Amino acid sequence: KPAVELLNNNVADFDTVKVLQSLPDSWSVHIISQFLSRAVRKSMNLSRNTRIERMMSRGENLRVKQTSIELQREFVTMNDDRMCAVCNRAFSDPTFVRYPNGVVTHVHCAKNRHVCPVTGKLFSTKQS
């Protein structure tokens, strides 16, 4: 009787599969019905929460992809007159960093890709 009461009152503390595997064959389902009912509810709740988290992650992923596409559509014109916004030197090699606010710098002048070196604006770190 104490074992049945323990199971029926503390479903969250036990691994349902291990409990079911270790139960004596003489016990009826009715004896542990409260435990089973709570275990099924707990499992269904966990499953629903996992599904909701997965859908929210997909939504966030789509939002990030949309933002990335929008940023990549904007053209950056590089010519001999264009200077690095940090060191004010011309661009001698074809690689550069463009921040979402339009600031263009040398790769070595871009210390942190999430913080604009000119304005100090913090950009989302969720895209990393």
How would you describe the overall organization of this protein?
With 128 residues, the protein is mainly alpha-helical. β1 (97-98) and β2 (104-105) form a beta hairpin. The mean pLDDT is 87. It has helices at residues 2-9, 16-22, 33-73, and strands at residues 97-98, 104-105. The radius of gyration is 29 Å and the shape is rod-shaped.
Q: List SSEs in N-to-C order.
A: HHHEE
Structural class: mainly alpha
Number of helices: 3
Unreliable runs: none
Largest sheet: 2 strands, antiparallel
Secondary structure layout plus pairing:
Blueprint (H helix, E strand, L loop, with lengths): L1 H8 L6 H7 L10 H41 L23 E2 L5 E2 L23
Antiparallel strand pairs: 1-2
Organism: Magallana gigas
Protein name: Vacuolar sorting protein 39/Transforming growth factor beta receptor-associated zinc finger domain-containing protein
InterPro entries: Vam6/VPS39/TRAP1, VPS39/TGFA1_Znf
What does this entry show, briefly?
This protein is mainly alpha-helical and 128 residues long. It is 44% helix and 3% strand.
Task: Please tag this protein with its features.
128 residues; rod-shaped; mainly alpha; single chain; 2 strands; 3 helices
